[in-house]
Write a structure and sequence with these properties.
Strand content: 5-15%
Shape: flat
Radius of gyration: 22 Å
Order of helices and strands: HHHHHHHEEEEHE
Number of helices: 8
Number of strands: 5
Length: 218
């Protein structure tokens, strides 16, 4: 199987829904791990995947103790598939939580980033920031003048809010031909991303195309 065969599966035409979801989940996991900033929460995909995990757990629990060899072999297959989905989901969630922990205030104060949170993630980020604020306040901020106690201070044109480095280099692969030249801001570099092409480039230059599904991180 060459790269064209792999890319031909991107559309998922003719594939079972479960296989399509596994491909989408794997792609979301790789992209989330590779991108320096938090990406949109794939609500529809995660809802289907979590429902399938719950259904498979119920099947396994119902069939445990069945000594029929055919049933036991089927359970082994189900459990193997179940563990694969659970691993991807856990790693995907850990990656997102790590980003939330690192850039909590930025995510909560940025409308674009905040909109990418799931509801549980939003609650986690809000509680996490409240705990940090209370800890800092009791540890040392209370000793400072009131004007110096803000964690989101932008005095002097310098923001105290840590933001992800959107100029981080990423590996990107084209899933479709992009006719519009991709320009690397601040340089004289521009290029055309064609289906199957792989580049190492700044995340900020290809973010739009990755989010639109025309390219993926690898």
């Amino acid at each position: 199987m060459d790269i064209d065969d792999i890319l031909a599966e991107v559309s998922g035409d003719g594939l079972p829904l479960e296989t399509q979801d596994l491909q989408e989940l794997t792609r979301a996991w790789v992209t989330e791990r590779s991108a320096p900033e938090l990406l949109p929460w794939p609500s529809a995909l995660m809802e289907r995947v979590l429902d399938r995990i719950h259904q498979q757990i119920e099947v396994v629990e119902e069939q445990v103790g069945n000594m029929d060899p055919k049933t036991n072999f089927r359970l082994i297959i189900i459990q193997t598939e179940l563990e694969r989905f659970k691993f991807l989901v856990r790693s995907f969630l850990r990656t997102r939580i790590a980003k939330i922990d690192k850039h909590t205030l930025h995510i909560l104060t940025s409308p674009t980033q905040s909109a990418r949170l799931s509801e549980p993630e939003r609650q986690y980020a809000t509680n996490h920031q409240a705990l940090l604020q209370a800890h800092y306040q009791s540890s040392f901020l209370a000793q400072f003048p009131t004007s110096l106690q803000r964690l989101d201070d932008t005095a002097g044109g310098i923001s105290m809010i840590e933001q992800p480095d959107v100029d981080t280099a990423v590996f990107v692969r084209g899933l479709r031909d992009i006719d519009e030249p991709i320009v690397v801001e601040g340089t004289d570099i521009d290029f055309e991303l064609r289906r199957g092409d792989v580049y190492v480039v700044r995340w900020s230059a290809v973010r739009e195309w990755v989010l639109s599904g025309d390219a993926e991180l690898i």
